Amino acid sequence: MSSPIYVAIDTPDLARAEELAKACKRHAGGLKLGLEFFNHNGRDGVMRVAEHGLPIFLDLKLHDIPNTVAKAIQSLNPLTPAIMTVHASGGRAMMEDAKAAAPTGTKVVGVTVLTSLDGDDLKAMGMKPDPSAAVERLAGQAKEAGLDGIVCSGQEVAVARKSWRDGFFVVPGIRPKSASVGDQKRVMTPGDALHAGASVLVIGRPVTGAEDPDMALREIAATL
Ligand SMILES: O=c1ccn([C@@H]2O[C@H](COP(=O)(O)O)[C@@H](O)[C@H]2O)c(=O)[nH]1
């Protein structure tokens, strides 16, 4: 069975991204490329990394009016990422149009509450200080809009999966026990997140910052 781990290759440097793709390709289930990479390297850069053979998660977290998001997705053609993201807070119509615009076979998932935010951050934004309630609400909207799943932290995935049994749950904010948390606030260990119901674990710095990323991946895999 292929690994549930997608390695977040957060760099604008194409050569470094390819080096990481090569290093991770034996023990990762996929590679995640985000805005930092895409803004610098565009579709051609994504194709270069995809040539290393792993499924690509294109994490652009689109958030705009429905027409603009749909056109942005169509403009990715000919890319056919395995997974891509929009913000669930963009609303139901935006999510419906995003799914309709995506290539067949690409899973479109809605980012609920960023894992770098906690209850105090939500309160400061004028929201209820309860990430779990916000995730549940946004997950419901994503499901109704026809998305394939959501992005949430490991702390909410069990509750979200209860009302979306066949949903696809992407979980970042993953930290092996000894790893530094950095800017993440809602974190969980890889084993606990998988046990709670994650479909995919997104792991960046604990792998890419290691001297030997392949060894770091294997050590994490051994805890699953
Ligand atoms: O809520 C979210 C959504 C996306 N991410 C992305 O996942 C990785 C996490 O990287 P680490 O180095 O393991 O912290 C990163 O690319 C984020 O953009 C997230 O962390 N939280």
From TrEMBL:
Spell out the reaction equation it catalyses: orotidine 5'-phosphate + H(+) = UMP + CO2
* InterPro entries, per the entry: OMPdecase, OMPdecase_AS, OMPdeCOase_dom
The EC number(s) this enzyme carries: 4.1.1.23
* Keyword Cell membrane carried by entry: no
Keywords of the record: Decarboxylase, Lyase, Pyrimidine biosynthesis
Q: What does this protein do?
A: Catalyzes the decarboxylation of orotidine 5'-monophosphate (OMP) to uridine 5'-monophosphate (UMP).
Q: Name one GO molecular function term.
A: orotidine-5'-phosphate decarboxylase activity
Organism placement in taxonomy? Bacteria, Pseudomonadati, Pseudomonadota, Alphaproteobacteria, Sphingomonadales
Quick one: which pathway? Pyrimidine metabolism; UMP biosynthesis via de novo pathway; UMP from orotate: step 2/2
User: Would you tell me the protein name for this molecule?
Assistant: Orotidine 5'-phosphate decarboxylase
Record-stated family: Belongs to the OMP decarboxylase family.
Protein's gene: pyrF
Q: Which SMART domains match?
A: OMPdecase
Q: Which organism is it from?
A: Sphingomicrobium clamense
Task: Identify the residues that the record assigns to the Orotidine 5'-phosphate decarboxylase domain, covering every copy.
Answer: 4-220
PANTHER family in UniProt: OROTIDINE 5'-PHOSPHATE DECARBOXYLASE
Q: What class of enzyme is it?
A: lyase
